[in-house]
Structures are given as C-alpha cells and as structure tokens.
Amino acid sequence: MTIRNFDRDKCTGCGICVAACPMDVLRLDENDGKAVIMYPKDCVACWGCESFCPQGCFDVSPERGRGELVSPY
Amino acid sequence: MNKLEDMGTVITTDVLVLGAGGAGMCAALKASESNVDVLMVDKCGIGWNGQVPIGGGILAYVYPDYVKEWTEKVTRGSGFFNNQDWTQIMGEYMHRSMMDLVDMGLTFLKKDGEIDILTWGPNIHVTLFDAPKSLVALKKTAKSRAIRMMDKIYAIDLLKRDGKVVGAVGLGLVDGKTYIFNAKATIIATGNCGYMHEKTYSSVLGEGPAMGFRAGAQLVNAEFNSSYVWGIKALGKELIGIHFYLYLENAAGEKIMGKHYPELMVGSHAVYTFDPRVIDAMYKEVKAGLGPIYLNLKGLTMEEIDDLAEDQVEGLTHLMANDTMLLLKEKLGVDPTMEKMEMWPRYLYSGGGLRIDTGGRTTLEGLWAAGGSSSNSWSGGGGGQAGLGVQSAAITGFVAGENAAACAVKNRRYDIDAACAEEIIDRIKAPMQRKGEIDATEVTYRVHEAVVPMKYNRLREAGRMNEALGIIKDAREKLGRVGAADFHDLARYHSAESMAMAAEFTYRAALMREESRAGHFREDFPERDDKNWFKWITIESKDGTPHLATLPVPVEKYKLQP
C-alpha cells in the first residue's frame, strides 16, 4: 500500500483522482460519492492522485510497503 | 474455435491510438485532421494520464532561422551518430509543433500577448505551458473533433493478420471485459519504462515496446538514455533547481561537488537535476564510505532557498523548488532551513524504443509508434536540452498520426483472424488458469534490484551486467509462478512482465556495445570506438527471445559528413 494517507473528510468527490489513477486503485463510492481505495496493492506510486487532487487529500509514499526502496548504490 | 464476438467486445476504428499521453494525444489530433475515425485507448483516465501532466511543462523551441545550425550542432555533438533525417525533422517541426499545439488548445506562457520564448542558455530556448492541465485542454479539442476515447483499458498485445498489425487486445480494468480492437492503422504511444520505482513517471511500465516486440517489431537504442536524477530520499522526488548542487555534503559535513568537480565552484554554473556529474560525485562519496549524502540548507532563509532554484530561468524552476520545499514541510514536517535532508540518485527511466522511420512507421506493417515508445536516433544517444522530451513526443506524435491516417484513408480494414485472437487472448489470460504461488509485486522488486543499482546500470561492466541479467532471469522465473484472480491481477502480471523485458533489452544491448558513448558508459571499455561501434543496435524477437543485430549509421546518405 503506497497511499500512506488519504484524508477522506476533505474529499469532495470530484473524481480527478479516480481519472488520474492508471491502475484503477481508486473508485468513487456509490453511497457517499467520495473516493475510496479499492485495490490498494495495485498502486504504482505514480503520484497522480497526490499531484492532481484539488483538496490535497493524498500522500503517496514511494516505499511500496517494504520500508526501503532498492538502493542505487 | 470460438467466434470473435464470444472472446470479447469487438470495436472497430480507422486509427487506433494506444496510450493517450502527450504523444498519443498529438497523434490522435493530427490523424483526425484527415477525417478518419480515431480511437484513443488508455489505462488511465484520459486527461490526467502519461508523463506530460506530471512533468515540468517545458517545450523546447528552435527559432526557424536557427534550424540549420541546430541540426548541425546536434549532429556534431553526437559525433555523427544521430539519424540526421530525423534531427532535421525535429528542428524544422519545432516552431510548427508549438503553433499546432496552440491551435489544439494548449496555453503557453505569454508576454505582451505573444508566446514568451525564454532563453535558457546560448541558443537554447524553451516555452512554458501549464503541465497539469495540458492534456485536459487537448482532450477538450479531441472531444470537439469527435475523437473517440476509452479510459481504463490496459492494452497488452497486438493482433496481426498476414504479417500486418490489424488491432490490439485490452483488458477493461473497471468493467472486467476483454476488448478486441480492429483498426486500419495502430499507433503505440504508451511511453517507455519507468519501472514504478519512486514517484516520477512510474506509471509507464514498458507495455508498448513489449507488445511491439512480441508482435515482431524491431527495437533500437535500448542501451542509451537510461537516466538517473538526484532527489530527496524521503520524498521520492527529484529536486529541480540549478544551484542546489553547491549545498550537497557527505556524512562528515564536507561539500562534495568541489572535491570531484572543482571547475563547478568557479563562476556561475547551471547544474540541473539530470546532471550526471552530481550522480557520479554522490556515488564516489558513498563508495568511499563517506555516505549518506545530504542537502544542507541550514541557516538559509526560504527566500534564499528559492533563489538557488533560479538563474536565467524565469518562473518555472522557482515554482517547482518552492513546491518541493512546501511538500517537505507538509508531508514530512521537515523544515529545510533547519534540518539537512538525505539525497540520493534515483533511476528514472529506460531508453530506446520501437524503431521508427521518418514517417513514424515501425518495422511492422500497420504499426506506427510515437513518444517514449519509439526511438528514431535523432539525438544520437544524448539527452539534449530541457523540454525536448515533450517536443519529441509532440513531433513523433504528429508525424505518426499524419501518416497512419493517410494509410487509413487509402486502405481497407482487414478483419481480425479469430484463431490468432484466441491464441493471444489465451496467452494474456494464462495466469488466471493457475494458482499463484507468489505475487506480481515480488517480480517487480526483483526487477528493481537489477535496474536501480548504479553498479549495474550507470557504471556498466560485463561481469556485473551478467549478474543483473541473472536477476532478471530469476524475475522471469518468478513470473511463471504468479497467478491472477481477476483483471487487476492480470494487469499487474503483464506490467511486471513488460518491466522485466525492458530491463533485459537494456542490458543485452549494453553488453553488446563494447565501448562508451553518450549516456552509455562501460568501465571495461571506457573509450568511444568509432571503428567497431559506429552502428546502432537493434533487437527483434526470434521465437520470443531477443535477437540482437547491428545497423551501421548510414552517414554517407546524410547531409553532413564527419
């Protein structure tokens, strides 16, 4: 899971994050119309939701659940 | 044998564009000018996809009266290793490309009502556009031109009939449907491979070159343009700005750039985030046991930090550095004026792509390619100036779109061969037939272990590259044990496969090229060797495995001679 924080209270249901996600991780909830994380393990940390969300709801970590990225050194 | 309609939803069009980022959007818009039916398909939601919206919003520009000199500069700069025909097309198209983009709805930075052409160096010019909204603007035009668009479809393989590409197969990620596209002409514009490592360009996963390769199209230049950038480790993001390099220090608090590149300490220099000298200095320090490397801005005011980003660059890098500093505070609670930050090199992107001719055609009939998925050798392996990535995407997109549409006007559509489609769909869905022992993510991690370390991918050497190829082989073996319960799993399986393929292409070509040239550096062959290596390396599938060959640079046919 690389979306380390999703502040759902701030979500207005505009759907930009859903559009921006290349792996269909995010969907709009049928009941309250807000974004919901449906497929957390499919996140590629592309940073689209974080970059484009007008409310700043997302914080994406590049770590991919392992704690550490492969080191370049 | 099943009927085609039983295998999936069949959709016909004249020009099929796979990937609707900068290159795909330009290809589709240009194709639509020939009054053909155009369909764009993307795994993302179109408008927010690809690399352009997340990039810097920089478009390289060459004044029309400077094109001849620019072409010559690129040619001489690359040691005549470039495809001069394509360099010329790039140069000549730059002004027109900008004007076409304006007509298509893109907004550029203006001054006194005119597009502001900025000077970023001697004869280096750029224009700036609003990157995050750029594709949304172009999409509006695409809609008004009745270009059809389909979101959230993960295209995996091409379909052929009698050796000619007649369409593609895609997985509907949201609706779980299999889509079978049947087209007169197909354009691959899905980018190259960002390996989903760290946060920039990580959504492009090598799908386009991989599907082209499987269908039999030739790849070229896989050993070039692998790029590292330096960035803030905790943020997973590069730092844009030209003076930050002066504040890099090792664990002992020594400034590192002056140690390795004293010339950079005298006078004023612009050292961008892509500058390999910074990456090399970091690597040397860490290997000498002096890591990690920090950016130490302690004691500076935020205004002073802002100024470090800027030089003659108006507006843009200033804003981006500002953004990064803000992110540091907001996301990590780090105050850059009070604490130092660990920096490290990030592997950004693989190079090469499907080989295209001056009409954007690949070596397969019915198939065109544009943007990061394609390679035309225009730069001769070098990176070039800022904004050329977007310009190259736009121009190769325009060229492919125009020529694919011309072909669609002239030719009829060939129906898809149901037997061929069935075979390909069976291959695509094979992981659904087995019980998975491991997750596709494990394969991705393994690929990262092969491509990210600089000892494999930057300071290349035969023994170590063979080690990296061993890791990739292991990744592919692991892939054979990955199962899939649904289309989401399948998409992750196929992205892991295309990443492993991109990595293999890079190292096979890099191993073959026993010399150093442009961004390809061999520790065991540190010199450029024009006698033996004045040729491009091509890769083609022979029974599914990569077969490498060389293609002498046809310099005798070009205008400029060494």
How would the blueprint of this fold be written?
The complex is a heterodimer of chains A (73) and B (562).
Chain A: E1 3-6, H1 16-20, E2 26-28, E3 35-37, H2 48-52, E4 58-60
Antiparallel strand pairs in A: 1-4, 2-3
Chain B: H1 4-7, E1 9-18, H2 22-32, E2 38-41, E3 58-61, H3 67-77, H4 84-103, E4 110-111, E5 114-115, E6 118-121, E7 124-128, H5 131-144, E8 148-150, E9 153-161, E10 164-172, E11 178-188, H6 207-215, E12 219-220, E13 227-232, E14 237-238, E15 248-249, H7 257-260, H8 276-287, E16 293-295, H9 302-309, H10 316-332, E17 341-349, E18 353-355, E19 367-369, E20 374-375, H11 388-410, H12 418-429, H13 440-451, H14 454-457, H15 462-479, H16 487-512, H17 530-533, E21 535-542, E22 545-552
Parallel strand pairs in B: 1-2, 1-11, 2-8, 11-19, 18-20
Antiparallel strand pairs in B: 3-7, 4-5, 6-7, 9-10, 10-11, 12-18, 12-21, 13-14, 13-17, 15-16, 16-17, 21-22
Helix pairs in contact in B: 2-5, 2-11, 3-4, 4-11, 6-16, 9-10, 13-15, 13-16, 15-16
Q: Calculate the mean pLDDT score of chain A and round it.
A: 89
Shape-level CATH architecture of the domain at 227-348 in chain B: Alpha-Beta Complex
Shape of chain B: globular
Query: Sheet bearing the most strands of chain A, described?
Result: 2 strands, antiparallel
Verbal overview:
The complex is a heterodimer of chains A (73) and B (562). By secondary structure, chain A is α+β, with helices and mostly antiparallel strands. Chain A has a single domain (3-58), classed as 2-Layer Sandwich (Alpha-Beta Plaits), CATH 3.30.70.20. Chain A has 2 helices and 4 strands; from the N terminus they run E-H-E-E-H-E. In chain A, the strands form 2 sheets. Chain A has a two-stranded antiparallel ribbon with strand order 1-4. A two-stranded antiparallel sheet of chain A has the order 2-3. Chain A starts with a strand and ends in a 13-residue tail after the last strand. Chain B has 562 residues and is an alpha+beta fold. Among the domains of chain B are: 227-348, Flavocytochrome C3, Chain A, domain 1 (Alpha-Beta Complex), CATH 3.90.700; 430-531, Methane Monooxygenase Hydroxylase, Chain G, domain 1, CATH 1.20.58.100. In chain B, 37% of the residues lie in helices and 20% in strands. In chain B, helix 3 (67-77) packs across helix 4 and helix 13 (440-451) packs parallel to helix 16 (487-512). Chain B is globular, with a radius of gyration of 23 Å. The A-B interface holds A 16, 18-24, 27, 39, 41-42, 44-48, 51-52, 56, 59-66, 69-73 and B 43-49, 53-54, 132, 151-152, 173-174, 196-203, 205, 228, 236-237, 283, 286-287, 291, 330-331, 344-347, 439, 441, 445, 448-449, 452-455, 488, 491-492, 495.
